[in-house]
Design brief:
heterodimer, A: Rossmann fold, 10 strands, B: alpha+beta, Rossmann fold, Elongation Factor Tu (Ef-tu), domain 3, 6-stranded antiparallel beta barrel, 21 helices, globular, PAPS_reduct_dom (chain A), nucleotide-binding (chain A), sulfate adenylyltransferase (ATP) activity (chain A), EC 2.7.7.4 (chain A)
Amino acid sequence: MTKTLTHLERLEAEAIHIMREVVAEAEKPVMLYSVGKDSAVMLHLARKAFYPSPPPFPLLHVDTTWKFKDMYALREKAARDAGMELIVHQNPEAIARGINPFDHGSLHTDMWKTEGLKQALDTYGFDVAFGGARRDEEKSRAKERIFSFRTATHGWDPKNQRPELWNLYNARKAKSESIRVFPISNWTELDIWQYIHLENIEIVPLYFSAPRPTVTRDGMLLMVDDERFPLQDDEVPVERSIRFRTLGCYPLTGAVESTASTLPEVIQEMLLTTTSERQGRAIDHDQAASMEKKKQEGYF
Amino acid sequence: MTASLDNPVIYKADELIASDIDAYLDVHQHKSLLRFITCGSVDDGKSTLIGRLLYDSKMIFEDQLATLESDSKRMGTQGQDIDFALLVDGLAAEREQGITIDVAYRFFATEKRKFIVADCPGHEQFTRNMVTGASTADLAVILIDARKGVLVQTRRHSYLAKLLGIRNIVLAVNKMDLIDYDQAKYDAIVAEYTEFAASIGISDFTPMPISGFKGDNITEISPNTPWYNGLPLMAHLETVALDNDADQAKPLRMAVQWVNRPNLDFRGFSGQIATGTVHPGDAIRVLPSGKTTTIKKIVTLDGELQEAVAGQSVTLCFNDEIDCSRGDVIAAADNPPEVADQFESTIVWMADDALVPGRSYWLKLGTQMVSATVQAPKYTVNVNSMEHMAAKTLELNAIGVAEISTDKPIVFAPYAENHALGGFILIDKISNATVAAGMLHFSLRRAQNVHWQATDIGRDAHAMLKNQKPRILWFTGLSGSGKSTIANEVEKALHLMNRHTFLLDGDNVRHGLNKDLGFTETDRIENIRRVGEVAKLMADAGLIVLTAFISPFRAERDMVRAMLPEGEFVEIFVDTPLEVAEARDVKGLYKKARAGQLKNFTGIDSPYEPPEHPDIRVNTVEMSPAEAAEYIVRQLMPLK
């Protein structure tokens, strides 16, 4: 009798297949871990792919020091539960120069994330890095391949990408080159939420609504997560019931007002609300096709 | 039905979402997945159709809709109506920037299924793009402009869909609104297509009259085509049979990706089941070894399974300790696939550099990675006319039928029976680029019937009697670098030391064994292949073989290295700069080449790829031939 696999079962099997191919063919893989919901799904898939062995690679968090407090708390626990080594990298130059999102705009992302990621990969000699990017996140990612090749300087050469047929991935590369691999390319935001619900995956509480101190700035609802948030003269933090649809650096991540405090309610709200996911992130509003540009520079 | 800017059909959410989210989630957790490809150019309304599918399945958010509305006003082509094509376009700008887009993937879902649409833009790279998109598709939507009927590109799309083994084909006759929903015109198009389809072996397809722009027969049956008694497109996509289900009825095949060994007590074999089902207790056979055992358990993080089916990624444990590693295939014990090393295949070339017949490429099939050579194609297929044409090689986007041989036997199945064990990619050994995709059709008889005859006196016995370790001293370098002179000195020295040697010289071999070969890239590769085989036979006989050939290509030197046991191939780079070799010009060949009297001369109009890590390197500017020879002999010690 035929047992038709559900779409989530097929997406899961595909992601596991990709992770195993990388482990079999790469010299020193690593999984980028940002503590967000996509990272949570990636980590869960990695545990499934290699069970009963622990995933045979470390987690790498390219830290900006500006993540939400709740994210730091979950980071340690998640790595421990999975039995994996957690490497935290903070760009020493960004520390020395005190780079922050309030004073330095896009330099903040550039130095902490783009430069920080390159430094970490070079320092540890990782040749393949798993990332949790999805093709549905925005238009320019729709054409992204699952195996994305980077030059020795981490540049993305659009003309030097390989066709991907069937489930055959070509992971061969020169010594100095590296590969970014995106096992959940074919997942949508709804798939991610459904999978978290179905598999009971632990995620940062910030995804659920709670009363939190907020200010409104440039049309974005920002959470005052710690004392480093420089309040302007006319600003007084207001407690609002909010949650986040994506998580990044707290001064750059817009919240939505919400009462959804359980996963089904969050999914319900997501399906009933009418704005797409990335709208809450300042990075996309910088300029048109900004993701594309950041990718060429080596941002994930 | 028409969505216009005045009256947009905004994201009408399912009522169940609001009233009972748990019930909604339960429904949506049981959806299946269909992957399909859309074929047609912009003129056929492909982008409009995809945009319409996204829109009608409520996959468009308000901010995207707002963008769509403003874009429609600014640059739409549909007047006051929403231009759905703008939802999926956005590739044009990237094309201008020179970015290679092979396939863009889009996602939408209905109550019953999630869909992944492979959208292949472009004309010039079309074959490569469509083959890539089609390789993972269950279904192809072939779009026809109702005003134009069956065109050359319709034939091309259909041929490629058939080539990649897509079983479900939808013939979407689009823009019906522009021919006033004329049934007679529609019937004529379908009749013409039926005849063409049969000629290329497509026996079954589903025709439907649609308008992506107006929405006819997309989600609901259109009142404009009362004569049409089939399903609307969306309903067809929701109910068509899935390849993944059909694969379950086939015999078990699972390529081993990774051996899972957390401790001495556990040894599991991880992979994704390609076809069939597996249960604890099932008898299985591991190929290519042919060893049999039974399944002990199916391990997952969620607990042991009583059954696993095609499409699932699992870890299997055996009841017996038999050898099994990455590249092996676990199969039903009573119905195993074939093992062979020569095949007939269809190859789609995907790289700017053309196929070099006889060159060694990596071939990846399932989880097997082997060296493979492709012969000159028997013919190539013109994808517009289906004509067979003679060809010596395969250029970018060419499709050809050719024999392919691998350096060791691989587990395979004809592509028509099993995509996972019949589909392969070829990888350039130097650039590591994926240069081709191919489909194996059958193994060639000579591979099945010619067996290796074991002899009692082996290569070790030969070598022991000669009191030496056989080796191939492979001299490579430009013409006039001094290879033959130095090799001759080395042989003299070894001879004095009572070693059994033989010197194979490039010019001498071309007087006999290789006198049928010229100096084209293909002939040079064959020249080296034959010399490699002869040198290997001599090494098997226990000799120390010296070869003096320009052997300009890294791939061929590596090919000979791979024929021999570790350490027996000694690559000696006679390193002489081109200016020096040309100044010497002992045979007057450089002068001729510069004068254009000699074609394909290495260093002049044919490349030389110097060894990256030669075992021995001699610099003939600093050393005399005698000094170089002495240095080489010293490096070779001890000779036993």
